[in-house]
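User: For my dataset I need records formatted as: sequence, then structure tokens, nothing else. Please produce one.
Assistant:
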Amino acid sequence: MQAHLSATDLACRRGERLLFSGLSLSLEAGEALHVTGANGVGKTSLMRILAGLSRPFAGSVDSTGSIAVLDERLALDMDHTLRDALAFWERLDGSKESQELRTTLGLTPLLDIPVRYLSTGQRKRAGLARMIGQGADIWLLDEPLNGLDTDAQASVAGLIAAHRAQGGICVIASHQPTGLDIPQLALEPLR
């Protein structure tokens, strides 16, 4: 099965305010898209709609393959060590501990630290490890570079490139340049 993600004539409304309308996209295996735009134009709302976590005001989404989401909600227990928090999801997802991934993301020296003590960038990298461990075909990355230093940003770009090379799809919503040569979709405020 090859991954596929498409949206047709999507519209999103928050309260009485229409954030975007008429938005369409289509991504096949190995493709990626960088969604850009000012705060409040609907980047996170679009990601939630693509993931099936929110309903569009209008339009439809079609996907083939499993979907994993990285957003500001860290899905790791703050009271456990990073090792135990990641191990919980590895058991649940049926994935194996990946020392290579933990090394790539700079997590190995942090494994015995409770998640609550991790910095913003360390938490973002931990969230990436958890998301990648799901083995999903489609990655929806909402601000994946927030809090990351230059080296960590390069590691994330490398992980995205590797995922795409294996037939995965990535949609990245970010204010920051991704370091990847991929098409951009700029969301503009509606007047």
